[in-house]
Amino acid sequence: MEIRPEILIVILASGIVTLLPRVLPLMVLSRFQLPQVVADWLKHVPVAVMSALIAQSLFLADEKPVAGPTLEMAAALVSFWVAVKTRSLLGTVVAGVACTMALRWLF
Amino acid sequence: MNGNIGIAKGRNWFLEGVKACLPTLLGYFSIGFAAGIVEKTAGLSLLEIALLCLLLYAGSAQFILAGMVQTAFSAVAVAVTIFFVNLRHLLFSAALAPYFRGTKPAENFTIGALLTDESFGVASDYASRHGAINEKWMHGLNVTAYLGWFAANMAGALIGQYIESPTAWGMDFALPAMFIGLLVMQMQSRKELSTDITVAVVAAVAAVLFSLLVSSSVGVILATVAAATFGLGVERWKSARKS
């Protein structure tokens, strides 16, 4: 039950880089408008970053390619299907976790 | 909604914001609970987890931080990865800014600091239906989510001590599942499916390649920059062909 200095530094650094993009547009955008090309580029960032993170978690393990299809890929397909059908974040997470759990127990 | 305007002055906006948050609380709780377990099993102490929730307050970033501190990590690599993962908040903040033009800077700071995928989703849905957002309503929504997230993480961390292998429960899949949900919902709310799918495929392939060539944290960044630039190019090419 303690706070290690190196962990505190990581939390503070991550907290600051997370806080700035959250706060700055709300505070300054009434006076300053992003150039259109920057705004257009930024629009693609969410889709790109989510997709990159999903690909990493499905196709890599310890920075090496996974061998063949995995249970998680099957769970991801189920999650995609549930997300498209329900449009519910909670539903998607619950379905993904439940599917992963069931598949790991079965195989 | 007859008489809505008449009672507007007497409305408890904060409480209405709290109520607007309730449907998402279950989502915060399941992901926060999973995050608490993962953070605890990654070797973080309860105090560190509490600080993490209160100072970082971002689900995916907390999972990533928990994963990265288990190995020999560099604070810069963690912060840079999390900066890119959370850069989407820039768009949320920018999109909500027009609704809070008359709000005090300190209040805008608080609203921005507590923005999440879910609170942005609820707020932008509300804004599209009502045309305006009361800042106290926004505070009610944000503070409820913040406290719910904190409680869920602590519950996960406490109970996680007694769960020997959270992977058997599939809890580690909560993060990819959340990204899948957010990706699909983002694509559904925009009307650019073909461009979005192209960007997503480029990002996925680039993420795997760059991760193998460099490292996974730099890989995410390079893949994001490459795919967003590609998306911008596709968009420009499409509009050039139309005109």
Structure description:
The complex is a heterodimer of chains A (107) and B (243). With 107 residues, chain A is mainly alpha-helical. Helix content of chain A is 75%, strand content 4%. Chain A is built from five helices and two strands; from the N terminus they run H-H-H-E-E-H-H. Chain A has a two-stranded antiparallel ribbon. In chain A, strand 1 (60-61) and strand 2 (64-65) form a beta hairpin. In chain A, helix 4 (71-86) runs antiparallel to helix 5. The mean pLDDT of chain A is 88. Chain B has two domains: 12-187, no CATH class; 190-243, no CATH class. Helix content of chain B is 75%, strand content 0%.
Pick out its properties.
heterodimer, A: 107 residues, mainly alpha, two-stranded antiparallel ribbon, 2 strands, 4% strand, extended, B: 243 residues, globular, disordered N terminus
Structure in a nutshell:
The complex is a heterodimer of chains A (107) and B (243). Chain A has helices at 5-28, 36-42, 45-59, 71-86, 89-106; strands spanning 60-61, 64-65.
Strand order of the largest sheet of chain A: 1-2
Number of helices of chain B: 11
Task: Give the fraction of residues assigned to helices of chain A.
Answer: over 70%
What percent strand of chain B? under 5%
Q: Radius of gyration of chain B, Cα only, in angstroms?
A: 20 Å
Mean pLDDT of chain A: 88
Structural class by sheet pairing and helices of chain B? mainly alpha
- Can you tell me the number of structural domains of chain B? 2
Number of domains of chain A: 3
Averaged pLDDT of chain B, please? 86
